[in-house]
Design brief:
Strand content: 35-45%
Order of helices and strands: EEEEEEHEEEEEEEEEEEEEEEEEEHEH
Mean pLDDT: 87
Number of strands: 25
CATH class: Mainly Beta
Number of helices: 3
Number of domains: 1
CATH topology: Tachylectin-2, Chain A
CATH superfamily: Glycosyl hydrolase domain, family 43
Radius of gyration: 22 Å
Oligomer: single chain
Low-confidence stretches: 1-9, 316-335
CATH architecture: 5 Propeller
C-alpha cells in the first residue's frame, strides 16, 4: 500500500441528480434547457441524460444508457420524473449489444423535444429518434428522424437548434476509430425531415494541436451560435462561436481533464452543453474519476474565465490525508477481515 505525505483538498463537487433506482447512478451526456420567468411546467431547468457507469454492469454497461429526463429549480439539484427512462432498448437488440445514447433537448412552441440515437453494434445501424412532450412527464412514441447503416460512419452526438421556424441538426460525422472526423449540419422545417448535410467550418487546431471532435453541443442564442466540442484525443472541452452557424471560431479552451487525485473529473471528460440563464453562462459537462460518472458545472466569471463550481457546498471542502488509493483501502479491509476471521476461528477452537 502506498501513501505520500501530501494533503489533497477537494474543492469542487458535481451537481446532485437523482437517478431511477433501476438504473446505475452514473449520470452522463447532459443536455440542458433553461426557461426564464415562471419556467416550463413549473420548473426553469430541464435536462436529458443517459446513465453510463465507467465499469461493466451486467449484461453490458451500454444497455443502461437510456434517455432520462430531470427537472430543477436552480440547475444544481435535479429530480427525476417518475416515468424514467422515456425509452428502452428492444429485446432483440439487447442480444446485439444495442444502446440508446446522445440525448438532446430543445423547447419548441411550448413542446419539449428529445432527440436521441439507437446504435446496434451487430449491424452498425445508427438511427436518430425523436420524442415529444407537453409536460416533461408523458412522452409521445418514437419518430424516426434519420438512419445510417455503415461500419465506417456514424451520426454521433446530434445537437439540434430551432430558430424562426427552422431546425438545424449538427452532428459529428465519423466513427470512433476515425480521427478524420468532421461536423455536419442539415436543415428541416418540421424537426423530422432533414435535407442533405453540409460541412461545418471550424478551426482544426488549437495551440498547434489538432482538434478532433467526438461529441458536441450547439445553442443558438440571440444573434450568435455557440458550440462546445469534446475532443477525446486531448481530453478537453472547447467553446466556439459563430454568426451564421456554419463558420465557427474558437473562443477558448474551457476545461482539461484534471490530474489531481480526488477530483471527480480526473480520468475522462465527455459531452458538455452550453446554457445561458439571464446574466449567467453555464456549461454542464460529463466526467468520471474511474470509479463513478458525474455531471459537473462550470460558470463564466466576470474576468472572462470559466471555473468549475462546487455544487454541493455541504460536502465540498473536505480533506484527504495522503494519496491513499481507494482500492488500497479496500484490499486492506479484505486482509484485515481475513485476519480477524482466522483469529476468531482459533478462539472458538480453544
Amino acid at each position: 500500500m502506498y501513501m505520500s505525505n501530501n494533503i489533497v483538498k477537494m474543492l469542487v463537487t458535481p451537481i446532485y441528480i437523482t437517478i431511477p433506482s433501476l438504473l446505475p447512478s452514473h449520470p452522463w451526456h447532459p443536455s440542458v434547457v433553461y426557461v426564464s420567468g415562471g419556467g416550463w411546467n413549473g420548473h426553469q431547468w430541464w435536462m436529458a441524460e443517459t446513465p453510463f457507469p465507467p465499469f461493466n454492469v451486467r449484461p453490458y454497461k451500454d444497455r443502461w444508457e437510456l434517455p432520462c429526463i430531470h427537472y430543477s429549480d436552480d440547475g444544481i439539484y435535479w429530480n427525476s420524473i417518475d416515468e424514467n427512462p422515456i425509452d428502452d432498448i428492444p429485446a432483440e437488440l439487447i442480444k446485439n449489444y444495442g444502446y440508446l445514447s446522445d440525448p438532446h433537448l430543445i423547447l419548441v412552441n411550448d413542446v419539449l423535444y428529445c432527440y436521441y440515437r439507437l446504435m446496434s453494434d451487430w449491424d452498425k445501424q445508427t438511427t436518430i429518434y425523436l420524442k415529444r412532450s407537453k409536460d416533461g412527464i408523458h412522452w409521445s412514441g418514437r419518430e424516426v428522424v434519420c438512419s445510417v447503416a455503415s461500419a465506417e460512419r456514424e451520426i454521433v452526438s446530434p445537437a439540434i437548434v430551432c430558430k424562426d421556424g427552422k431546425f438545424r441538426m449538427y452532428y459529428v460525422d465519423g466513427h470512433f476509430t476515425n480521427l478524420n472526423r468532421g461536423i455536419q449540419m442539415c436543415e428541416s422545417t418540421d424537426g423530422v425531415h432533414f435535407d442533405e448535410p453540409r460541412k461545418v467550418k471550424y478551426p482544426t487546431t488549437y495551440m498547434s494541436n489538432p482538434i478532433i471532435p467526438w461529441h458536441i453541443d450547439v445553442q443558438s442564442i440571440c444573434e450568435k451560435v455557440y458550440m462546445v466540442i469534446y475532443d477525446q484525443e486531448q481530453e478537453c472541452l472547447f467553446l466556439l462561436q459563430s454568426i451564421d452557424g456554419i463558420h465557427f471560431e474558437t473562443q477558448q479552451k474551457l476545461l482539461q481533464v484534471s490530474k489531481k487525485w480526488g477530483c471527480f473529473y480526473n480520468q475522462k471528460l465527455y459531452r458538455a452543453c452550453y446554457v445561458e440563464a439571464g446574466q449567467v453562462s453555464r456549461v454542464y459537462f460529463s466526467a468520471t474519476n474511474g470509479e463513478s460518472s458525474h455531471i459537473g458545472l462550470m460558470e463564466l466569471q466576470p474576468n472572462g474565465e470559466w471555473h468549475v463550481v462546487n455544487c454541493r457546498k455541504g460536502y465540498g471542502c473536505f480533506m484527504f490525508i495522503g494519496t491513499m488509493l481507494w482500492q488500497d483501502v479496500y484490499h486492506l479491509y479484505k486482509k484485515m477481515r481475513h485476519v480477524v476471521a482466522q483469529n476468531l476461528k482459533r478462539i472458538i477452537k480453544r
